[in-house]
Amino acid sequence: MDTIDREILSTLQEDARISYRDLGRRVGLSANAAADRVRKMRRSGIIRGFTTLVDQAAQGSSGLVIFIDARLRPDTTDEQFEKDVVRLPGITEVIHVTGEYDYLLRARVSDATGLDALVRSLKRQAGVAHTNTRLALRIVLE
Fold this sequence. Notes:
- By secondary structure, the protein is of the alpha+beta class.
- It has helices at 3-14, 20-27, 31-44, 56-59, 78-85, 112-125, and strands at 64-72, 91-96, 103-109, 128-135.
- Strands 2-3-1-4 form a four-stranded antiparallel β-sheet, covered by helices on one side.
């Protein structure tokens, strides 16, 4: 990694949705050169994914952080579930785990009604058979 790669990472941390054209401008490269560097960092594992972070102070601390253990229906594949679950509103993290459940999900919902809607969507739209839901009372480190 060189200085330009570090600048690219810093820029992507500020705005993961920036276009390659704008990214290239910021770091002094063409859009194609910026895209090539991002692809290389993804292949090497330096970049594992892109996430949009929301400033909770700006958003207010409204809403509930919840954790959902999800067990898939036998007719649901991991690939199909992963494709479907990331489309559901409120899902902020999807982790494939070992144990009694297949996945651990982290989500933010507005209230109990939002939680109910999310659990129903998981079962109807994402192929989930069983869930176990926990509510975060306080987040010490995020």
